[in-house]
Amino acid sequence: MDAFVDAIDLKSFGFAHVECHEEGRPPYHPSILLKLYLYGYRYGIRTTRKLEREAQTNIEAMWLLTGLRPKYKTIADFRKNHSKAFREVFRRFVCLLKDWKLIDGQTVAIDSFKIRGNNSLKNNFNDKKLSHHLAYIDAQISEYEALLDVADKQEDKKGIEEKLKERKEKQTKYTQVKKDLEESGEEQISLTDPDSRAVILLRNIVNVGYNIQSSSDSKHKFLVEYDTGHVNDTNALANIAIDTKELLGVEHLNALADKGYHTGAELSKCRENGITTFVSPKAPATRDIGLYPITSFIYDHKNDLIQCPQGHEMRTNNTWHQHSDKRKGKKGAYRFRRYNTPACKTCISRHLCTQSKNGRYIDRSEYANVTEENAKRIYENPEYYRLRQQITEHMFGTLKRQRGFTFTLVRGKENVLGEVGLMFIGYNLSRCISVLGAEKLIKALRKSCLLGFADKILLLLSQFKKSFSLSIKTIPVRMGSFYFIKGSLLNPKELYLCVN
Fold this sequence. Notes:
With 500 residues, the chain is of the alpha+beta class. Among the domains are: 121-190; 294-375, no CATH class; 453-500, no CATH class. It has 18 helices and 17 strands. It has helices at 2-6, 30-42, 48-57, 59-64, 72-81, 83-99, 127-150, 154-184, 237-248, 264-272, 368-380, 382-385, 387-392, 394-402, 413-436, 438-446, 453-463, 465-468; strands at 107-116, 124-126, 188-190, 197-202, 205-217, 223-228, 253-257, 275-279, 298-300, 305-307, 313-314, 320-325, 330-339, 362-365, 471-479, 482-488, 494-499. The strands form five sheets. Strands 1, 4, 5, 6, 7 and 8 form a six-stranded mixed beta sheet that branches. Helix 2 (30-42) packs across helix 15. The protein starts with a helix and ends with a strand.
């Protein structure tokens, strides 16, 4: 962690107080606070007050911070103000791993994990929940108004009036929330953290939080990219896959994902952007009621027709249809063409095929070709698809069970992604130590393109180490606009090199 942060050009990533004026008391250098955060997140210590205590009592943290003891407010402000910088440092580290040939960028696995947000379930609303609350409050208001008309004593009237006033305030609040929900065009709204959404954490357990999408490379299982968006994985595949491909700078990419990501539109976007998908197909949505299943109808690509189990040709009039949701007033997610045949009326096996008077209809989606190609790749390469679990599942267990990353401490999408970036940087550093070893990793970091100016001077001095018999050690202390690098002579005097 010490070598990693020292190798970063913090100013280029937008960290504040890298350089400061000579007058006045100097602030804490961002390298100090970044090291503290990486150390804390590595061992599941994430709250600012606990990090403050670590800096005062933990010998490792004291060495890492060179004895400095920042207060919890300073630590909290650093995390709040540098969310974008954390994410950019993570991405630059991924590019560095690609340069070191630790990431090959040929096969990535995409998966998601959910974390609780800083928003309670009672402060998250959808239209149904708001309508229920308003109906209940309206009934209470009517009840209290009726009691107020028949109350005799002044004390009783006063108590009823207070309750009535409270219910009307709640009615006004929920009415405004419902109006805000309708204006936003979203399906739900959160009051404490507006970016958080109600997500299913486990089975039927619902909490308000974030659905974090991530991609991992197959070579050494490094985390490559991450984002957050929808409450489920249905419309998330293309965005994370395309971002991963652009970050790695490759022309072609294989993406493995589970069936939660299987959506025709997303598969089509991936194909258009040079990404070959291996996504587990979903089972047909039709219920099995003893009739011919949809899989028994064979599509002829050349003649654009479907052959039914009895050998009849089902054709289409080339009209595109679209499902609609009358309750929400929305159209379906995709278009389809409908195939049928007049032979249904006289077919002797009609009772085995359909219960409809008009015969059997087969709907073929506009994305049917791409979904069939994806399914064919899965069936032809089952062992390759099984790599998905080996690539991407185990790190979620490490992050959640070992490092306690089951909830976020911040609010807002940008800040949450910054906290995820801190966690992912620490994970990739741990993976680097497993692959390269700590000593080799430190040497590689010192030679990397992330080197700052002071580290370059230190590297130059180390080249003359034998000539001057110097034992060089960096002291990350900031005074004015100067770095101070300390080297111990053998005699034993001390040498201080001041670098502007």
